[in-house]
Predict the structure of DUF2628 domain-containing protein.
Amino acid sequence: MRAWTVHSPPISGQAAAPGRARRAQGLALVPEGFSLAAALLPPLWFLRHGLWLVLVLYLALSVLAALLLPEALRPYAWLGAHWLIGLHAQDLRRWTLARRGLPVAAVVLGADEEAALLRALDARPALARAEAPRAMDAAGMMEGKAA
């Protein structure tokens, strides 16, 4: 079983940050643990998950390290940085989701994302309202494919 954090827009009764509620859509589940893809190809992983600010910081620090570090230390710095990125990639996703108006709503255990989502919705039915727009969109897409 794997731990997942569930991120949702503020449920009615909770104060939303001004201007952020408009951008927040549905639920997001983020797994806990090391991300091999993020460790091997950080820029592509950041782009895949929409971590624009993190990508800019990564590129800036890469250029800075290339300019300031001696040639002999660069491979070790690269390995260490990519190892740390793999360890903290999911935390960077959680931070970005919180900045976008999707704070952590729950922590659940599940074998995969679908099982974790079902457990979260079972434990906190109010989260189903945040998930409804995404489910409706998926159903509409399925109907469009069937027609």
About this structure: Residues 110 and 118 are 9 Å apart (CA to CA). The chain has a mean pLDDT of 84. Strands lie at 2-7, 28-31, 104-110.
